[in-house]
Amino acid sequence: MTHAAAQVASKITTATLRARKTGGTPAGEKTAMVTAYDVVFARLADDAGIDAVLVGDSLGMVVQGERSTLPVSLDDMVYHSRIVSRGVRRAHLIGDLPFMSYQASTEDGMRAAGRLMKEGRVEAVKLEGGVEVAELVRRLVRAGIPVMGHVGLTPQSIHQFGGFKVQGRTQDQRARILEDARAIADAGAYALVLEAVPHALAAEITGAVPVLTIGIGAGPSCDGQVMVMHDLLGLEPSWKPRFVRRYAEMGKAVGAAFAAYAADVRAGRFPSDQESYE
Ligand code: KIV
Known about the structure:
Distance between the termini: 43 Å
Mean pLDDT: 95
Largest sheet: 8 strands, parallel, barrel
Bound molecules: 3-methyl-2-oxobutanoic acid
Number of helices: 12
Shape: globular
Radius of gyration: 20 Å
Number of strands: 8
Structural class: alpha/beta
Strand order of the largest sheet: 1-2-3-4-5-6-7-8
Low-confidence stretches: none
Helix content: 40-55%
């Protein structure tokens, strides 16, 4: 079997991910998910054996330089999802529904999700919220669109929270997040992102819902983890919150490479005769 054929044979689907939960994921079989925004990093993640690639609306912050995810448009998400899809063969591919593409009405959400699937080529959509979006999740699932939920710190509600703050520290917040997680699971979502919640709450939710939980800043008890690729790769050297583990220092490496190139050009060391045509 060729490498490409083997990759496609082991394709990760929503069925694979569901089975990891219902089959009682043995230790060591957790799900590893990362974000990607272009074909180069999507292909690198896929080739490295990452299980799921998320085209996150975090692209507003890490790619577009905005202070939040709110300005990201559905067109932006469709564009980035489509180019990421060209680099993903084996991994499961999810696209984020951006702010105000689904909050105003269920119909808006259905159409936005349809565009992400048809034009963005994603295999599932992710949306933020709990009880208030449960009806939309139900309709999407009935229409054949797999949904990943997202509760806890939901960045599209950043102004409601008053900043990027850990959620679920008070009894009221804990009860609300648990209720939201249950509502999304009951509505038919196949997975649920838990963002920036105390690890005891993430463990409780992971035990309470029959769907895969994917944590970010939610501790080790979740069924899987997700990281923004820029954080994992150290592309922004000045940004290192507590929940991030850096697996590379690419920001520093790329800066050094650019500086070495500029120095070589200025000193006349690049290009050499070997790098020039006869
Ligand atoms: O937009 C994003 O990258 C996300 C992840 C942080 C889960 O929602």
